[in-house]
Amino acid sequence: MIVLSRFEVPEARLAAFRPDAQAALDALARQAGFVRGRLGCSLDEPALWSLVTEWDSVGSYRRGLSAYDVKLATAPLMALSVPEPSAYEVVAAADDAQAPATAPSSRAR
Q1: For the segment 52-107, what is each residue's pLDDT rounded down to a tens digit?
Q2: pLDDT attached to residue 36
């Protein structure tokens, strides 16, 4: 599964945001089931940032979020988060130049 969290960061908070986001990513990366994560800044809107993480399962993601050090590390980011759904089931992937792999949804209909 992937998690896409977006943040609107005012210029006055930018200097603190990047190290805070890195600390959150580092805390998430220490959790069981974490696969990878990326922090990015929009090329078109410099105030818009994203934190994308990939997890083995929704359970590992939820357990990772409930870890005390993750709660502490992500707290400074919460006020800047865009209120929208963030957890997504992966139904297709292209990890290299080969043909994309697809899979049926594992969710109940």
Answers
A1: 999 999 999 999 999 999 999 999 999 999 999 999 999 988 887 765 566 666 65
A2: 97
Q: How far is CA 74 from CA 24, 68, 85, 99, in A?
A: 5, 10, 17, 36
Give the rounded distance of the alpha carbon of 46 from its chain centre.
18
Q: What is d(CA 13, CA 18) in angstroms, rounded to the nearest whole number?
A: 9
How far lies 3's CA from each of 14, 15, 42, 48, 97, in Å?
22, 24, 17, 16, 23
Distance CA 91, CA 105 (A): 6
Give yes or no for a contact between 88 and 52, defined as CB atoms under 8 angstroms apart. no
Q: What distance in Å separates the CA atoms of residue 74 and residue 43, rounded to the nearest whole number?
A: 24
With a cut of 80, say whether residue 109 has pLDDT above it.
no
- Torsion-angle region of 57 (φ positive above 0: left; ψ -120 to 50: alpha; else: beta): beta
| Tokens encoding 93 | 């992937």
